[in-house]
Write a structure and sequence with these properties.
single chain, 452 residues, alpha/beta, Rossmann fold, TIM Barrel, 2 domains, seven-stranded mixed β-sheet, binds iron/sulfur cluster
Length: 452
Amino acid sequence: MLKRTTRIVLVNPPSAEGTTANREGAGGLGTVVRSRSAFFYPPYTIALLVSQLRRAGLDAEGLDCVGKKLSFEYALKLLAEHTNRPELVGVQTSVMSAAADIKFATAVVRSLPGARVFLFGASVHLVLDKIWSVPELKYVLAGEPEASIVSFSKSCLNGDSTPVRSVKHATQQIGPGELPRVQELDTLPFPAWGPPGKLRYPFLTVLSSRGCPLRCTYCPYVVGLGGRLRSQSPPRTVEELLHIRNRYLCRHVIFRDPVFAADRERVILLTDEMRRRNVHVSWECESRPEHFDPELLKLMAQAGCRRIKIGVETVSERLLLRYRRVESHEEYQHYLHSIGEAVAAARKHNIGSDVFIMIGLPGESADDVEKTAQFIEEIKPSKVVVKIFENYPGTPIYTKKDTTTLSAAYTNLLCLREELRARFEVHRPQTRYTLVPRRLRSLMKRLLHGRG
Ligand code: SF4
């Protein structure tokens, strides 16, 4: 499973028993759901870091314990029984999975004396207090790891022995607010997903743009990926799609860009290039409703788009204004109109539409929830994904207190989540429901009033 001579191993650590961790979910702040067989994404960051390290002449491999469903003990055994034990082990972490990841990283330090063990991930800087509370842990790679993995690894392998117990790594001092990020995405290599041939993942992911210039105040994506939109050039993205198709025989791709269609011109050029180069890969993406106009959706369908994910959250004007999702009444009206228009145009072009709504935003009333459910039923998307509001550290509205105004039944749901967190010791298994629109209202009633 691991080559015996590898010097650097990057690990997507095991999910805690009964849960599935997506450390790249929510812009790198992570998601944890309550099922070992839940949906998960292939570990894009690790595949990319391995590729960067190999391009720099270093011997590196990834170990995806979530995808391979490896237990904590088995993953440790694999690392420890390596004949030439790895000299450098990176453990990916996120806000939501931090406690489990720290436990794993600590066990790696104990079972591999002599190896340097570091934690990395887009939100590692938000869990430093937890990391530094464990004396064995001495290294983190803060910011986007792609920005500094090569210099950090070289420095560690060259024997720099300075323990790093602040937001800095072995070669560079970093202050808060100056987390390193990759500025030119085209300079990154294609992720090393594995040996050529079909992979066990049913799809692969591409991150063709990062960051979002908008400022919804509950949003974890801006915290993890920054507030500036950075994009690959369309020819570079198409090269990656062809590489995925030809090397890994993969015919379906999920774009993980937080706002894939924010730059309309880029998407037009990208879809042109996909058609011109006969990519023949089906794909899906997500963006705000206003980004998906009918003309653009037509071009996307012609280029292989089969599903769009539309972040709606709520249709309450009061809440959308309060959380800066929209800035004025006119913008709100355009927002509502765009949702219905995008769903209808997607249907016309044979593109599935998944609408994402959130319940439990502080200040939301049962009436707001009911109106959102009613609206979604009317526009009839293919699927609805209901997420319980998550109070993410680093967002402008983050507070340690639960400030939701929803009913006792909703509060019970939050208590259930807390109970699960306690049971699993580490994280907050999130509550998320995917369903067809006609089931939405009965789910809402059940969540809010305990009936349905
Ligand atoms: S549009 Fe809002 S919610 Fe979506 S990524 Fe941007 S800031 Fe976040």
